[in-house]
Amino acid sequence: MNRIHDKSGQYDNEAGRPKDVREGGRGISSVAFNTLFMLIVCGGLAVMAVVMAVVDPLFHYHAPLSGMSYTLNDERYQNNGIVKHFTYDAMITGTSMTENFKSSEADALFNVNSIKTCFMGGSYKEISDNIETALSANPDLKLIIRATDQFDLISDPDKHVSTDSDSTFKYPWYIVDDNPLNDVEYLLNKSLLSDALTDIRMTLSGTPSTTFDEYANWMSAYTFGKEEVLKTYIRPQQSDLTYPLTDEDRELIRANLKQNVIDQANAHPDVTFYIWIPPYSVCFYDVENRKGTLKRCFDAMEYECELLTGIDNIKLFGYADREDIVTDLSLYKDMAHYGEDVNSEVLRAMAAGEGLITSDNYRSYMDRVRSFYMNYDYDGIYE
Amino acid sequence: MLFNSYYFLIYFLPIVLLCYYGAHAAGNKASEDKAYMWHKAALWVLIVASFIFYAYDNVYYLTLLAGSILINWFIALIMNGRIKSGKPADGTNLSGDHVCDTLQKLILAAGIIIDIGVIFYFKYYDFFIENMNALFKADFNLRHIVLPLGISFFTFQQISYLVDTYRGETTDYSFTEYAAFVSFFPQLVAGPIVLHSELIPQYRDRSRWKISADRIAEGLYVLAMGMFKKVIIADKFGQAVTWAWIDTASRSSVDMLLASLFYTFQLYFDFSGYCDMAIGIAKLFSLDLPVNFNSPYKAVSINDFWKRWHMTLTRFLTNYIYIPLGGNRKGRVRTYINILIVFLVSGIWHGANWTFILWGVLHGILQVLNRMCKKIWDKVPKAIAWFVTFFIVNMLWIIFYAPSVSEGLSVWVKICSFSDMHISSDIFLLFIMKEVNMILAMLGPVGALATTYYQWYMIMYLILSFVICLCCKNLHEERFRPTVGKAVLSALLLIWAVVSFSGVSTFLYFNF
Would you say residue B239 has pLDDT above 50? Predict the structure, then answer.
């Protein structure tokens, strides 16, 4: 059996080296060992940190270097740096419903220079925080195009993916917060070093940076159409009960919109907020109908309209009444997610002022929406 | 706070080392009286640092640690008779001059009951209630108590202190020394289980108050190796183990056999890596902690395995349970019963689940069988003895890991049935190392080939693990000799581990 070495008396401290250090002739003194070790460790880590700070693939310290190519590929790691350091006067943001937007189209339609910072599965709070960072960092920001998803409308105003107990996702707070001490998680991170090296390789090979038209755009990654949509969910049994919008629900909507939309708009009267409600497909409303929550869904939407209209710098748009979109399942990959053609159409419509919801017309808009979805032949989808 | 975190390695450890040696350096220049004060200040640096280290994850449990130290210290004081006399004991304190032996026993029992009670409440309360509810069809509420870090370690450590105090083996320790001994952060949350007689005399050894280049060198080397074992090896195996156990029903027999092997290596590299880090960090403070692992997978019998695995726990159980029960002095049957009791306690100590208890009992039975058949077993060729031992240990780790006994048994059945022999491709994917791929990409066609046939990553992980476990000498097996090669290797491995602390977390949006 192997014998564990007895530690007693093995050191010759004054000499700074083990007693038998010269045995075999390959040993070095402990002082030399420590010096060499620390030089390699500190030197290696310092070089890495400098490379990271200079290339800065997450734009944490500075804007993209002139002449350098960058990959945009991770929203939650890069959006904070983008809004802090890029040059822009308009931003497109929201959930996955906004990822297929093309900023070049927004630029042409609204005569702006826009960026796109979406958050797949993002809550109102997460999106609002990113907008707040943008507003603080960029006095030139004049236009914000933001989707408000119905998925998360009735929810805690502070809901955030970082506190979602079902998520194994570790939120990169070191990118978002202002604590310089945790920047080591960015500067000494092999995955992000790999991103920095990719940027260097792209630059050397003459590959251009990812554009905001391409950033987070998932159009080419999925197949669209009725067949695909119907694969993504199981149609629920028809519920015998209907679930109304309760006072608690209304309070959640009010608090959520107040904290994450209205207060922000009121605090920045010079900025125009284009808020729009994404057009989910009829399949989405079929599921709501079967679960007995369709009326609740529209009551919530109407309450949102009530709260967001009448504010000078908020222009609210709704496209749930666009039958040409919501009934055409060839535009969708699942019950809610549509392809980039819908994003382009939404941009065009907003720029043209189509679908504008005001305090004067929101009730008639909701009447149209209710009338359409409550009388729709949902069984026909499955024939 | 974790050793394998930026905050610990880049901020916490250097600052504590600076303060600790700064206090000692001030003491070395001062007069004899003041030198003692500075030494005490250095110990308080350790205590405060240890409390910060412990409170980092949950500040509320700091009161538990502080309370546990105070109560045990107070009980030891009573046993030592120091409270009654009002003077420090002189080392011959348990002669009965102050407190009679029966009273000593009662105080000792009270101390142990308090310590066990604390562990029971935090670790076993819900388990106990669950079983009571199941047994008596009752509906007592569970408390879902979050287990305080390291409670089993620092409580066992203090039980040993109380027993040794009763035995008259503790001397005139000061409260500062005692608190610094129990809370010493390198060993606080996961061992090794250090005895007062190992650590406190080192605190007093003046030769350890100066920075020793030799100990720093060995400490850096052992710390780097431990970090590599934990971060680069164990955590990679851990990903594959988690994947396999998330849905055991849909895994194949070979998947689960591989998963069992992965866990066998994960557990060893994780725990021994952590202990290496603890030993290495302690050496940076010129302190030696006991070795906890001695190449356990080289064992050629279960008996041999337990002499090599978690050695300080085995030592604790031997000294404070097995020997007091009579050890092997009361005949063969009592010896076997004592062994079974020790392993039952070991199983319970490892966690509040029947899986741990079954695992402990099975190891106990195998240990007894090993003893009964020792003469026959010794004649078995070493290679076969090793294989059988490794296989048994590996299979028993399945029960150790399983969330429930029934799930553990179903995995055993799945593996032994060899019903499905395919290997899921996901297993191979889990072992891919982005940074290695990045380097391979620079090697042209050979690199491209290696990244295409990514299966070699898992195979290399297994081969490397077997080589380290079976062919390499234990880090602590022989005297450390600093060489250029060791400096370069350990520094590079530490860099690799450090830059692996924080990966890029992938957000999975299941609704998408």
Answer: yes
Among B212, B242, B259, the domain-final residue is B212
Is residue B182 a part of any domain in this protein?
Answer: yes
CB contact under 8 A, A4 and B476: yes
Domain that holds residue B132: 6-212
Phi–psi pair at A90, nearest 5 degrees: -145, 150
Sequence-separated (6 or more) residues with CB below 8 Å from residue B369: none
Amino acid at A369: V
Q: Tell me which of B148, B180, B212 is where a domain ends.
A: B212
- What is this structure's pTM? 0.85
Kindly give, in sequence order, each residue whose CB lies less than 8 Å from that of residue B261, ignoring residues fewer than 6 positions away.
B394, B462
Instruction: Indicate if B310 and B340 belong to the same structural domain.
Output: yes
Residue B466 lies in a domain: yes
Nearest to A337 by CA among A197, A240, A263, A232: A232
**Whether residue B158 sits in one domain with residue B231:** no
In a domain, B246, yes or no: yes
Could you tell me if B182 and B282 lie in one domain? Answer: no
A237 to chain B, closest Cα gap in Å: 20
Cβ-Cβ contacts under 8 Å, B280 against chain A: none
Q: Look at residue B353 and tell me if it is in a domain.
A: yes
B119 plus B191 within the same structural domain: yes
**Axis-axis angle for helices B151-166, B62-80 (nearest 10):** 10
What are the distances in angstroms from CA B155 to CA B54, B105, B148, B193, B494?
15, 19, 11, 10, 32
Homologous superfamily assigned to A71-182+211-382: SGNH hydrolase (3.40.50.1110)
B217 touches chain A (CB under 8 A): yes
Same domain, B176 and B321: no
Q: Is 0.90 exceeded by the ipTM? A: no
pLDDT in tens, A232-285: 999 999 998 989 999 999 999 999 999 999 999 999 999 999 999 999 999 999
Mutate to test the interface with A, among B481, B489, B506 (most CBs of A within 10 A): B481
Please report which residue ranges of chain A form alpha helices under DSSP H.
30-55, 75-85, 103-110, 124-137, 173-176, 184-187, 190-205, 226-231, 247-257, 263-267, 282-291, 294-308, 323-326, 340-352, 362-374
Contacts of A35 (CB under 8 A, 6+ apart): none
Q: Which amino acid is at B120?
A: F
**Domains contained in chain B, number:** 2
- The answer to whether residue B39 is catalytic is no
Same domain flag for B246 and B172: no
- CB pair distance less than 8 Å for A28 and B487: yes
Q: Does B476 touch chain A (CB under 8 A)?
A: yes
Instruction: Output the average pLDDT for chain B.
Output: 88
The answer to whether residues B464 and B471 touch, using CB atoms and an 8 Å cutoff, is no
SS (H, E, C) A299-354: HHHHHHHHHHCCCCCEEEEECCCCHHHHCCHHHECCCCCECHHHHHHHHHHHHHCC
CB contact under 8 A, A30 and B214: yes
Catalytic residue among B39, B350, B363, B476: B350
Domain check: are B130 and B276 in the same one? no
| Residues of chain B with C-beta less than 8 angstroms from the C-beta of A193 | 435, 499
Contacts with B216 from chain A: Cβ below 8 Å? 30, 34
**Do residue B230 and residue B145 come from a single domain?**
no
